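Dear colleague,

Following up on Tuesday's group meeting, I ran the structure prediction for the two-component complex that the binding team flagged. I've pasted the input sequences exactly as they went in, so you can double-check that nothing got truncated or mislabelled along the way. The structure tokens for the whole assembly follow below. Feel free to forward this to whoever is handling the docking comparison.

Inputs:
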Amino acid sequence: MNLYLECLAALTPEIVIVATALLVLLVDLAVVQEKAAAHRAALAGAITCLGCSLAMVWLALMPCSVHTAMLAVSPMTQWIKLPLLLMTFLAAVLSWHERFTRHAGEYFAMLLLAAAGLMLLVSSDNLLLIFIALELLSISLYALAAFDKGSVASSEAALKYLLFGGMSAAFTLFGISLIYGIAGNLQLGFIAARLRGQPGEPVFYAGLVMTLIGFAFKLAAAPFHLWAPDVYQGAPTPVASFIASGSKVASFFVLARILLTAFPNARGTASLDDFLPGWAPVIIVLAVLSMVAGNVAAIVQTNVKRLLAYSAIAHAGYALLALLAGQRYALSALLFYTITYAFTVLGAFAVVGVVENSGRQASLGDFAGLSRRAPLMSFCMLVFMLSLAGIPPLSGFFGKFYVFTAAAAAPPQLSLLWLVVVAVAASAVSLYYYLQVLKQIYAVAPPPTSSWTRPAVSAQVAIVTLAVIVIALGCVPDLLLGKITALLKSHPF
Amino acid sequence: MLAWTIYISFLAAAFLMFLPGDNPRPAKVTALLAALAGLACALMGVIQCREHAGAGVLTDVVNAPWIAELGIRYHLAADGISLVLVLLTGIAAVAGVLFSWNVETRSREFFALYLALIGGVYGVFLSVDLFLLFVFYEVAIIPKYFLIAIWGSTRREYGAMKLALYSFVGSAMVLVGLIAAYVVAGAKTFDLVELAKHSHSFPAAFQNWAFIVVFVGFAILAGLWPFHTWAPTGHVAAPTAASMLLAGVVMKLGAYGALRVAMTLFPIGLHTWQNTIAALAVVGIVYGALVALVQQDFKFVIGYSSVSHMGFVLLGLMTLTQIGLSGAVLQMFSHGIIAGLLFAVVGRMVYDRTHTRDLAELQPMNLNQVLPFAAATFVVGCAASMGLPGFSGFIAELQVLVGAWQTFPVFAVLAAAGILAGVAYTLRVLLKAFFAEGVVDARARPRCERISLPERAGALLLLAATLIVGLCPRLLLDLITPSLNSPLMKPLWKAGLP
């Protein structure tokens, strides 16, 4: 078959998503402009969910594998798009009843474009295409963050996100240009081939570090995390949940891909007696700083969204550990960890959204006595918080356990154990602030004059689904892990 | 059969979670039935596995693959030591429900958390896969936090958070050690029996640090001095049933983990640290007893006495003699029963009626007239706690002392002095709380409801358990002693150790 046709077939899910985005815009503009805002949001949301489902069905049923200079579509990349689309789907469901979706068409179209960016990101095989996909994703997210037009915080969040994001894009682009100068090619496999056996030049390391800094901004790893708390707090809650979930998974996946396929020989070591420059020392510094800064700063937060932002920084630190594991474990540990984390944090933000929609804010005190008002939502929040803290039998526990074991087993044996110790200690600290949230929900009496509006059924269904996923993946990790390891075995990259 | 102890507890907890309505009665009845069913399963399991355990063989209950990628299996099995502790859990669970019969606020949630805790404890005692053991161990932490933070009394939020963080730090240390052991063994298994086979090939330097990390990680929960400080505050803050479980079974989780995991996986490390830990255990015995001697809060006395009695368990473990170890396990059982009983008297019978635990305020109330049943129970409980012959504590502490005498005579003498201090604080609290004839003030005499039927039943259950074991310790020792040579315990006795 013609290569173009093959590419077209491989990109069908992306095309479906982009077409849905255009359709949403069109329908909203041409058909329902006169209707009430709630109806418009419901219609646009339904079309969005339909588009995501279509793309997911296609992905699940049509295995496909294409490798060009730009694209590397493999069963692995196709599979990872499933959880990404599921997250988009759930974020769309959670946005239906938000107040800010007055411009429903634009909102859902932006969400879909961001999803298209995610999907393109995971299947690009070329640094330039990776950059373009990253920008498609980021620009959509900047606009989404600003969507709550009535709120100053939302605008501030978007502006901060834009400024930091723009700077990180500049770093990435500059780094890529330096790497191009050395390697003479931007395709990941070629870069690895060109660099093999060469002693690294200083310029190459400068390029590598700059690219990493760009990604560190994107992943909110300390010390490049400063935008995260303001954006998570200010952005509309479903948008924040999307930034924390889908965007994280895809960025981590592509970072792992770059490091493991393009720069496997520039790993370096971080042991003090035998230091070799490379990306491993950079990742270690980022991981330690993120785990410590994220967890310590989270302790003093009084706003739950801000607390989740700092917890996200800490979790980025744990996930970075996975990158340091040996090739065999690195990707499976990273994927399991980030995917389960993404579902958990999506759920946690959804519960925050429910509380906000009932006429409260997102400060700790607003959760007081929630268990009396909404036992089911409270139980789901319990599941999400404990999973984030890493308590078994929830998926967050096995995710952490797997990452830590993988890092400790990285050759040479136990050389990274000190890092695991830091991570375990940090995670022991984290229990404190997750319990603060749960204490408000369960142990503190509700304020006598608080009102409570029942959350929308769609939101409740989405939240319960997420809680079930988090519990199921914790009790039977093989549901997800089996698939990941099978894919990695048949298609190592 | 034994596996059902776990499933029944968790299923009942889940059922209670989704039970509609705020009526406490169905919740209580469900909890009692679940606890009784758990006890019945435990008893039947003991009867089934008795012969195997008596021969020092491990009885497999369930063994199925769980997480293939890391070689983790869902493997439950029991030897005599597990059986004894499962039995203890069953008895303590039933007694705890009986003594929480007066929980009226949010009782559904109370019993759901209570049963989840019990399920986790059963799970720990039956797990042979280290990962599974750790999962159950952590499952038990969170319910404790909520039980104390929601239904507790004095400084409950502080006590609950302190307890949760101490437990979590302990389990974090255990986690580091078990990951390291998994990696170093390189056998792609978390099975304790398999890992124990590698234990003598672990490098000595590795064992030396791994042992102390894992041991202390577990021993924090067993109240090892100086990491015991969560115990008195946690016990005091907890509602009655929770403090019964905390002292009764949760502290045993720590001792059990220390024995099963730390000591068998790292025998060389154990040898290095043996004297240090024995010294800490003796300090715990004496310190706990002396501090208990000067407490003004009734519950603090029992809280510190737990630290002291758990010191005997740790000392027994460190003797590394058959008699010392079997004494340690028996002491786990014995203290579980007796501490449960004492906390029930203090928390449920006295505090829930008089609303004070200050000994100076209790003194003029002349409680032996007001609450004769409570007084009688407490007298017997104190006799058992002091280690009078005829009660389970006597034979347990005697064995520990004999074992200690063989290994470290000086510590044995100091521990015996700790027993004397124990007699002193027990008699002091008995006198002040119930029999202070001289300072009786008729006005201070409280009007109290009578001791209810569930309370009597619970007290009799616990008294019967300590008496039966005290009069016929063979019942348990026949399970414990052969199990010290079970495949799980083999590494302890291999070359290089007495």
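Residues 2-493 of chain B form one domain.

Cheers,
M.
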